[in-house]
Amino acid sequence: MKRCILLFFIFICAFSQAQDISKQRQLEAKRTLLSPKIDGVLDDECWNNVPIATDFIQIRPNPGKIETQNRRTEMKVLYNDVAIYVYARMYDHPDSVSHELVSRDNIGNADFISIIVDPFYDKMNGNGFFVTAAGVQFDAKYSQVGDEDANWNAVWESAVKIDDKGWTCEMKIPYSALRFSGKDVQNWGLNFSRRIQRSNTQTFWNFVDPKVNGFINQEGLWMGIKDVKPPLRLSFSPYISAYVNQYPVNLPGVKNTSSRFNGGMDVKYGINNSFTLDMTLVPDFGQVQSDNRILNLTPFEVKFNENRQFFTEGTELFNKGDIFYSKRIGSIPSYYNYSEVSSGDKIVKDQTEAKVLNATKISGRTAKGLGIGIFNAITNSMETEVEDAQGNLRMVETQPLTNYNILVFDQSLKNNSSATFINTNVLRQGSAYDANVSALLFNLNNKGNKYFVNGGGKMSYLRGEESSTGYSYTLRFGKQSGNFTWSYNQVYADDKFDPSDMGFFTNNNFLDQRIGIGYNVYKPSKWYNQFESWLNITYSRRAIPSAYQKIGTNAGYWVQFKNQWSAELDLSWDRKSNDFYEARNGQLYRAPENYGISLYINPNRAKAYNFGGNVRYFEQQLFGGKQYNFYFFQNLRLNDKIAFGLDLNFNPNYNYVNWVTAHGDQAIFSKYDRRTVENSFDAKYTFTNLMGLTVVLRHYWSDRRNKEFYLLKPDGHLTEYQGAPLTGMDRNYNVFNIDLIYTWQFAPGSTLSVSYKDAAETYDTFYTQRYNKNLSGILNAPQNNSLSVKVLYYVDYLDLKKKRKKA
């Protein structure tokens, strides 16, 4: 009888625990008169008698499991008139705590603790503050569907200690880092998260169910915050920088070495409780990492990652609708004018980036959920230095003074839904054309966030000598939560829709449809932690005039094993298609059937030495075209300060067929072999959590060795080319980069950085199938070397005001 009672009691406790994890947790807000010392030592008197948040719940590897007592987490939160304060005790064996030193805004191989707050409690937007066991800070902004903007930065304080019980952390987050209302009594959304790196375990205070779509919408509640008022949010970050650049131009009248001195300022101003103005005046982006340039044989533009912080931080409103590609501003302008460069001219120096003169962002969200974003940037004109046949030098304007604008209205609705209007506008000085794109978008979810429907319509308008108006729409609906998910997607664009002046654009004139299904298991079994599977079927037609383009399918399976290794298998098949883009002249090309198989292996990255990679195979059912890809990476951590990484990628192609050149109005294709080798090496030495040195070396080599040429016939098929011999059609491209950057955060928000860059690029030289010949050749080619020093100093107006009062 006693055993039955005991079993019944255990069952009731387990059932109650299972029920508790689905309920929203709440924490009472406590005001403090004494501010704790932010030193990571949890002995301040103010922490006594403060409610504790504990019993964290796993999201991985075992969703729903409550943390064990010997690995438990205890969190406390206080507030006063100037900041919120966080107490964190993470129980663990001290020798097991991972604490790799990395640069700010990185986690590395380290345990972390975090607090995520939603000051407006709209369950759609929030801010996260993370601290690793090495004391490294990471902060991020979260939007309504759980997207993480890791480029958002704030100035706040933290400290950690490792002791015989595990490790501890204290944080001070000033109100100047947050946006919130001025109500007398407030409730904020709140969650805490902890990661134990060695076991890849992540827990949350308020359970975040991986089967439910969204992250912020699964938060807890911090109740009863009284009499806190948003402070004046005003900060300045003036900078000065100096550059020395050396490139062996070796032309009369042109210096091989040049130097320049820059100065400018970033400004942040809280217009009111909800809206912030960000402005950069005469910005300097010379120290961002180099783009990974490649030999592009496709008819479409290559999309590069944005590395300039101003264009990545706090841009979630401007990225709605996918019509904003920030690299258009300065880095990759869409409009070039070389009409004044004649065939006999030689380009001495071609400016590929337009100088950004200033850029401004105003963004925020009202108490009723209306998000407003205003963006403006101005780039200077671009000039190319040209030498004529007589040796005379002149400057030719290839890009005029340009003004870029974005306007966004985003209304939050119930159930994490929204309706959005966004407009982009590009105005150019002089006779160059202007461009305007507008989009009206919607995203609707049911009450449980299980089903969704979203989409919208877009219109582009180009105004110039030949104006045009184009249209596009998107419709998508399906099931987004649960183990089984599905969706249907339809996208249409007419033959005049063109958002490329401020967005990334490949082609228009299509009607694409896709059906996707997925089945995911998040509960671990005996041999795996989690697995995902998916199947997608796509069908595409040309819109005007209507014609079949392609149909294909891809399926895949991903599994994470108990030892934290994971594997992914992908299969793809595309039926014979009608390609209207490969010929570059609008002519139809009847592309062959192709299929592929890929296998990816990823290791447990918590290990000091880890390695992985993938093997891929694709076959083109024409002339026996075959493509292989072998990728291997390895990482080595010597200790918590020093780490190395090596990536090796080999991609050989045999008997592939694609467009190669135009002969009059005829498209010429070729059968070719191609080898691509990309090797990169990176290393870091982190002196402290505020100072580090990183270096990245990359060599990319790719060629194209044509074997036979074909003429594209009017019916879209290929026939043997019978014209005059074609020469100079082979390609051999090498690029080499070194990026070495030293950074020191010498004061909160203030940095000193020193950057050295070496870049070399060659076309159609060192033609050989031997990799070492190409590497030797690019290393001996003319190198573009630059050295820069930049000092940025953060000034908070409130701190400045306090210092004046004391004086």
From TrEMBL:
GO BP: carbohydrate catabolic process
Location of the DUF5916 domain: 230-803
A GO molecular-function annotation: hydrolase activity, hydrolyzing O-glycosyl compounds
Family annotation (InterPro entries): Carb-bd_dom_fam9, DUF5916
Domain Carbohydrate-binding: 38-215
Keyword set includes Signal: yes
Signal peptide per UniProt: 1-18
Domain of life of the native organism: Bacteria
Pfam families in the cross-refs: CBM9_1, DUF5916
Cross-referenced SUPFAM superfamilies: CBD9-like
Keyword entries, A-Z: Signal
Listed name of the protein: Uncharacterized protein
